[in-house]
Amino acid sequence: MRKTILHLTFLSSFNRYCQLELQDDVKQADKLHNEILKYKQDIADSNDSFNLNLKISELKELEKKIETKKMDLCYKVPLKLKSVIDITKYKE
Q: Which UniProt keywords apply (predicted)?
């Protein structure tokens, strides 16, 4: 039971850490998304789709960056924890 609580606590903390780590990128993605919506409304009145396509590409790249960072965090944090656990085993 204690291990389960520990695992759940870790997962909750890790989730909060990921959110904090990615906060700036997510805000930037939201801003781009809003700009794209604005461009879509403006394009209805004109034929200028270049800026819209540029913003959509920028948003896709940013979303890829966010997902890559998430995967990187999911990989690196457990490795760091494992190394700390291994070090403490040798100290005992």
A: Plasmid
pTM: 0.63
pLDDT tens, residue by residue, 15-52: 888 899 999 999 999 999 998 888 888 777 666 677 78
In three-state secondary structure terms, 91 is: helix
d(CA 53, CA 67): 21
Domain that holds residue 47: 2-91
Burial of 46 (0-12, 13-18, 19+ CB in 10 A): exposed
What is the number of domains present in the chain?
1
C-alpha 10/C-alpha 80 separation (Å) is 14
